[in-house]
Structure formats: C-alpha cells, structure tokens
Amino acid sequence: MTQWEAAAPDLWQGRDDSGEAANALRLFQTTARSQTFSPEHYRDKIALLGFACDEGVKRNQGRPGAAGAPDALRCALANLASHAGHERLVDMGNLLAPTADLEGAQQALRDAVSRCHQAGMRTFVLGGGHETAFGHGAGIFDAFPGERVGIVNLDAHLDLRNAGRATSGTPFRQLAQLCDQQQREFRYACIGVSRAANTQALWDEAQKRNVLVVEDLQCSEAHAQLAAFISEVDKLYLTVDLDVLPVAEMPAVSAPAALGVPLATLLTVIEPICRSGKLQAVDMVEFNPRFDNDGRSARVAARLGWQIAHWWQ
C-alpha cells in the first residue's frame, strides 16, 4: 500500500549566513515545506516530491536501495546556496511504497502528479528507481490530454523492455502503450545511451517506436537533434537516470556506467531543455545511498538538481 508523508524537517538543515546579508540564503531557508499534500495552495511553484520506491529495481534484478534516495537528496540539496528560481521549490513530501505493489505505487504517483499539474504546479520528483518514470509520465499525460508531450530521458539504457510486469526497465514501453491507448503520438528521446548496455532487441524496439536515440559517444553533437525535438512538442518531461554519468562521478546507482556522459557535458544538453519554456516536469532516479559511502554521489546529484531548478523557465 502506498502512503504519503510530509518530509521530516531535520532533513532541511545547513549553514545560516543570514546575518551577513538578507539574501545570503541557502535552500533549507527558501524551500517551503508543506505539512499536507495540498498543491492547490502553491500555484506556479515547483513541487518537490519524493517517490520512495525500488520495487522496480528489484524486479529488474538490480541493486535495491533507491527507496532511500529522496531523503538523502534533500539533505544534499539543503545547504546549497539559493539563487533565482530556487524560491519556487515546495517540498510536497514523499510517496512511500513499503510493499511489493509497484503498480499501486505508480498509480499513486500518477494521481499525485496529475493533481499537482492541474493545480498549476510543476513537478520535480526524486526517485526511486526508474519505475518512477511511468507514474510521473502518465500523470503528465493525464494533466495535459490535448498537448504534445515530449519525453527526454538522459540514460545509459533505453528502458523499453518487454516484460510480463512493470520493472525499472519497462517505463517507456509502458508509456508508449499508454500513448497507443490514448491515441496520442509517443514522442521519446533517449540521450546518453550505451550500445554495450542495450540488446539488439531494445534497439529494434526504439526504431519501431521512432525514438530519437543519441549514444553516449555522440552527446556533444546532440544539440541540433534535441532542438528539433523540442520544437515539435508543447510540453517537455525530463527524466534523468543518474547511471548516465560515469562511474567515477556517480558510483552509487544500480548499474554504474563504465563510460557514461560527464556531468559538464550532460549540463550542456540539459540547459536548452530548461530554458525552452516548455519544461513541465523533471525527475532524477536510480540514486542509491547504500553505495555512497563518502557522499560524493549525493553531492553530484544535488548539483544537477540545483542547476535544473536554477535554469528552469
């Protein structure tokens, strides 16, 4: 059974420099924290919502632990300086998925996301495994039935697996099937893909679905393709699987990348998405704090999330 709870206040702590100047602030001081799930009170804000679930990772034979990521990422974000855009963040708490009912958890996330968007908020979801993407994406589809929604996935994996049940490897096949049901076009770009980590069957499925695929070795040349993709949609959903980063930068994921796309390169891909005026939803997934002994991976993920919120127009 999935349940909601407010984020613990002690997650949002940091250095207090407010005595130095009125604008010497950090995220723990500017991020609002809602004690109820009430997006109707926060129009034009960004809902920071945790999805504490890794049942999809378990089903996909990965390393579990991503359910602990939302709170670990809050701690890493809290002490970062607050600049333009960050004042829009509202911590809307966590959806908890303590049982094996992944489908129920995804439906709960779908409903919560749809409610946020219908209330005029945007959503920034902290996963969880990449099963997060089906619940998040479906909620966006529900909220914008007449819009052309484009999905940009920064990921070493296509996540188009054909499986008997939902896993962290199936979310975009599930979203493609949902598009079929809703009679809308499936618009999906996957950037940073490792050919070595995806079977030919997955490449065939991507070709069948007309997916824009940019391999990890080609990311520095992806800007024209991405610009064309952005021009053809009304709304954008950006999902970042942190295993797109090299293992040296991001070891604490279910499937670390031997090559990966460096953070500095990845940010050049992300910036035009954020500045497009079309970005409606973001998530970061697959961070696994069990394998982050020195806190390095949390800091990298937090900087990435910080930059997205700062650029988000």
TrEMBL record:
Catalytic activity: N-formimidoyl-L-glutamate + H2O = formamide + L-glutamate
Cofactor: Mn(2+)
Keywords: Histidine metabolism, Hydrolase, Manganese, Metal-binding
One annotated GO molecular function: agmatinase activity
Co-factor remark: Binds 2 manganese ions per subunit.
Classification via PROSITE patterns: ARGINASE_2 (PS51409)
Residues binding Mn(2+) 2: D155, H157, D241, D243
InterPro entries, sorted: HutG (IPR005923), Ureohydrolase (IPR006035), Ureohydrolase_dom_sf (IPR023696)
One Pfam family linked to the record: Arginase
GO biological process: L-histidine catabolic process to glutamate and formamide; L-histidine catabolic process to glutamate and formate; putrescine biosynthetic process from arginine, via agmatine
HAMAP family: Formimidoylglutam
Matches recorded under PANTHER family: ARGINASE/AGMATINASE, FORMIMIDOYLGLUTAMASE
Protein's name in the database: Formimidoylglutamase
Organism in which the protein naturally occurs: Citrobacter telavivensis
UniProt gene name: hutG
